[in-house]
Each structure stands twice: as structure tokens, then as C-alpha cells.
Amino acid sequence: ATRVAPSHLSVYVNLANLIREDDGRLMEADSLYRQAISMRPDFTQAYINRGEVLMRLNRSKEAQQSYETALQLDSDNPDIHYNLGIVLLEQGERTKALKCLSRALQLDPHHKQSLFNSAVMMQESGDPALRPEAYRRLHEVLEQEPQNEKVYFNLGMLSMDDKNFSAADLWFRQSIQLKPDFRSALFNLALMLSQIRRDLEALPYLDQLLTHFPHHSKGLILKGDILMNKVKDVDGAKKCFEKILETEPKNVQANHNLCVVYFEQGDLYRAEKCLAQAHELAPEEEYITNHWNIIRGKIQQAEMARRKQQQLLREQQEMEQQQQQLQQEKEQQKEQQLQREMEQQKKEQQQQKMEQEQQVQREKAQQMKEQQQQVEQQQMEQQKEQLTKKEQQQKEQP
Prior knowledge:
Layout: H1 6-19, H2 26-39, H3 44-56, H4 60-73, H5 78-90, H6 94-107, H7 112-125, H8 131-144, H9 149-161, H10 165-178, H11 183-195, H12 199-212, H13 217-231, H14 234-247, H15 252-264, H16 268-281, H17 286-396
Helix pairs in contact: 1-2, 2-3, 3-4, 4-5, 5-6, 6-7, 7-8, 7-9, 8-9, 9-10, 10-11, 11-12, 11-13, 12-13, 13-14, 13-15, 14-15, 15-16, 16-17
């Protein structure tokens, strides 16, 4: 068979390599790689490059076929085994993917990408038996790239899985030092600190995370929880949950936690309405249903207490009214008694006045009588004196 000269193929491949930098022209790049492969079916690099383009086009099955074909042509190429492993990982075939990365490491024990990604897969598997090897592989990558923040982060994740929190703390901090806006490192360090009851230490890292990613929902949830439960800053927690709902109005956890804020503020009716809406969003979530039932129970208790209080208030008002009425009656009786006493006193005064007047009149009459008697006595004495004088005169006459 006649082979196409490499110089001719390079035109297609180089042009495709240039075009694939533009996401809008990936289909053109794929077409050029296919043309190169059609002219030379054993062109390994064309299969490798096409596999990358197909992955960016979300055509993972075709990418898998492209890498498998490349392996048939070059089975000892660790890069191809690695790329196939990444494709299988995207498809959820973690066991097959790990085998591919392990094969790449058999061919090249220092294959950096395979060392790193296989270690990450081991960590994410949750299998404690795989952690020592994961540590070893990450440390080997660290020797090659001492400034790789992702390696420090994954060492932190491994240490956290081993519950070696002091080591995890150091790894995470080193990762953040290299990349201050490393989202995963900031959040997981804050989460770990919260889990080991060092909540207040978590807050600065959450603030740093939210400075770079203001709508990071998990970070806002964690910060809100710490503010509400540890700092007792209910208003600050409310702002966190409301911030999430600005961009994610159907975020179940944010809706639920906002309901808890209303409860903490003592607004039971708003909390109940909020939980009803959260229940509509996630009817299968038992914790929402349980909290909803608790709030409704508290509202019923509050209603019963309110009605009882109203009854007591009414009884108290009735008793006060009765007491007031009795008091008014007593005052009326007192006033009437006072009125009677005043009238009696007035009568007595009038009687006394009459008696006084009568006494005065009697005294006047007595006085007039005495005066009359004196006048009469004087007249009698005058008459007697005149008679005496007259008799004397008669005696004196011869």
C-alpha cells in the first residue's frame, strides 16, 4: 500500500492542532484529524489528538474508541493509557480507569499525571487500604512539582480521611498559601475545622472563600450555620442563606436554614410558612418534615397558651370590673351616707338655730316682761308717793 508522506499529513494535523484551541471550531478540528487518519490509519498521534477533541465535544464513547485504537498501534505508550483512563473515569468506570492509570505507571513509574490522578481516585474511593499508596504517589508528584497546590490539597484530604487533622490542617494551609483563591482547599479546611469544633477558626477561611466566590453555596451554608449556632449572630446567618437564594431560589438547604432563622427570631408563623414551601421543594426530606411538624406543634401550643392567656385576661378583667363595681357601690353608699349625715347635720343646725331663736325670743319676752314689771312698779311707787305726799299735805292743813 502506498503511504502518505509525513509532510502531507503534518499539514492536516498542524492545522487541526491550531483550530482546536478555539472551542467553537472543534468540529473542524475533528474533521481534519479524521482526514489524516483516513490517509494513514496507523497515525497514532492523530488518534490521540482526536480523542482529546472528542472529549471536549462530550463524545466520550468515540474518544474511548479513538484511544483504544491508538493503543492497538502503540500499546507501550503511557500517555495513551492515561488518556483512556481519564475517559473511563468520565464515564464512571472508576475500576477500569484505575487499571489504565496503573498500566501507565508500569510503563513509566514517574508518569506525573497518572501518579496524581490515581492517587486522587484512591483517596476518593474511601478505601483505607489504598491510602498508603496514595500518599506515596502524591509525595512523588510533590518531588517533581513542589509548588503544585493540588498535591498539597489532596494530601490534606487523605490526612482528613485518616482523621489526622493536624496534618490535614498543615497541608490545606500550604495549598492555600500557594493559591489564595483555591476554592476546594478553603472550603474543606473550614469544614474540617468546624467538624473538630474549631468553628471560630473556620470563619476567616470562609470569608476568604466568599471574597473570591461570593455565591459559593456550601461556604455560605457553613458560615451561616456557624454564625447561628456558635456565634449566635442570627442576622448574619440570615444574610448568608438569603445570599444563596438570590441565585439558587430552589436550594433546599438554604430554604430550610432560613426557616430555622425565622424560628430563632421567634416568628413561628413565618417559620411554618417557610417550612411548608421547603417541603414542597423536597417532600422526601424527613428532616424538613420533622422540623415542620415541630413548628406546627409549637404553634398549636402557642395558640393554646394564647387562648388560655386570653381567658385568664378576660377573667381578670371581669374580676376587676366586679371589684370596680363593688368599689363604686361602696363609694355610692359612702356618698349617700355622707349625704344623709350632712342632711341630718343640717337639720340639727336648723333645729339648733330655731331653738336659739326661740330662746332669744323668750329672753326678749322675759326682758320685756321684766321691763314692764319695772315700769309698773315704778308707776305704783310714784302713785304711792303721790298719795303719801297728798296725805301729808292734808295733815298739814288746819
